[in-house]
Amino acid sequence: MSRLRDSEEEAERIASAAEGLAVLLDAGIAPSSAWRHVGRASLHPVIRQVAARIEGGSAVEDALTAEAGAPGRDGGVAALSAVWSVAVAAGSPLSPALRGAAAALRDRAEVAREVEVALSGPRSTARLVGWLPLVGLGFSLLLGVDVLGVLTGSPIGLGLLGAGGALGVVGRVWTAALVRRSTPRGGVPGLEEELIVIALSSGLSIERSRRLAAETFGMAELATAESSAVDGVLELAERAGAPAAELLASAAEQHRRSARASGRRAAADLGVRLLLPLALCVLPSFLLLGVAPMVLGLISSTVEGF
Q1: Do residues 195 and 213 make contact, with C-beta atoms less than 8 angstroms apart?
Q2: Which of 76, 135, 157, 203 is 20 to 30 A from residue 188's alpha carbon, by CA?
Q3: 290 to each of 124, 225, 276, how far by Cα in Å?
Q4: At 155, is the secondary structure helix, strand, or coil?
Q5: In angstroms, how far is CA 2 from the centroid of its own chain?
Q6: CB hemisphere CA count around 254 (13 angstroms)
Q7: Is residue 124 packed enough to be buried (19+ CB in 10 Å), middle (13-18) or exposed (0-12)?
Q8: In this predicted structure, what is the pLDDT of residue 1?
Q9: Is 61 exposed, middle or buried (0-12, 13-18, 19+ CB in 10 A)?
């Protein structure tokens, strides 16, 4: 299973847990009890771990922070932890904050799903052309040419084997690196704006809300490149006297749209970039391992016939 598909399922399951928590909290169930109920029903192992910590006596915020900071955790867990921490610290209602987090996580899953679909074609092409050298060897054997004997029985053959094998390995590594660089990374787009909106909804000042969101981002170790954009939105709200929360919510939505567009663009660019390892490594490897030994074998057998 690809990393993108893992990310998609992770975001969907955490979003389902967040929505379930919101429903239970609206029904008047205490946060710790709501987590226990959701943990029993969740398919996500981290959600179960959080619920187990809470049953063991940990506070919800401590349990979330501990699990979000564990090695190998996806950004969705850290995002849920950040949303919960800001809502509790600011005294904001938890249910709307959790529903907002669920919506952002589902949007993240949708981005991952769209990029996964867009990357499926280039990935399949990369896998297919990576096997071309071995396919060439197989065809040569079917034609009755002792390709392995040619490759291992003379200095020229050994040179072809070494060069073709090296080019094949380089081509596969290069292709994998291109696919990896085209795969979206990072946390939940627009999360910093959402955290500030949550804090503002409790009546905190813009400065205090911004500081609380920044502190939570630092604790959760969530990478973000949105701080300068947030500054611009807050300056605009101050100059125009417009509601900062609405402008920030709009900016968060814009970041999510931008993330989706960037993912699609990366997938489209990948289809073109994959031509480089194909032309410079994979096809030459195919010629050196499959075609050249077959030609040498045919020449050798013809000479021996005379």
Answers
A1: yes
A2: 203
A3: 22, 48, 20
A4: helix
A5: 9
A6: 11
A7: exposed
A8: 44
A9: middle
Say which DSSP state 201 is in. Answer: T
Chain centroid to Cα 30, Å, comes to 34
Give the chain's domains with CATH numbers.
Answer: 1-108 (1.20.81)
CA–CA dist 42, 265 (Å, integer): 34
pLDDT at 163: 92
Q: Please give the Cα distance from 284 to 162 (Å, whole number).
A: 12
Q: Residue holding tokens 């893992």?
A: 6
Q: How far does CA 201 lie from the centroid of its chain? A: 31
Write the CB contacts of 92 (distance below 8 Å, at least 6 apart in sequence).
Answer: 86, 198, 199, 201, 202
Residue 306: exposure state from Cβ atoms within 10 A (0-12, 13-18, ≥19): exposed
Task: Encode 97-118: b = buried (16+ Cβ within 10 Å), e = exposed.
Answer: bbbbbbbbbbbbbebbbbbbeb
Per the CB < 8 A criterion, the answer to whether 78 and 95 are in contact is no
Residues found in the chain: 306
d(CA 220, CA 84): 11
Burial 278-304 (b: 16+ CB within 10 A, else e): beebbbbbbbbbbbbbbebbeebeeee
pLDDT of the residue at 107: 77
Query: With a cut of 70, which residues of the chain have pLDDT below it?
Result: 1-7, 69-74, 115, 118-119, 122-123, 126, 129-130, 133, 183-187, 218-228, 301-306
Under DSSP, the state recorded for 154 is S
Q: What is the pLDDT of residues 169-217, one digit of tens each?
A: 898 888 888 877 876 665 677 788 888 888 888 888 888 888 888 888 7
What are the tens digits of pLDDT across the range 212-233? 888 887 655 554 545 667 777 8
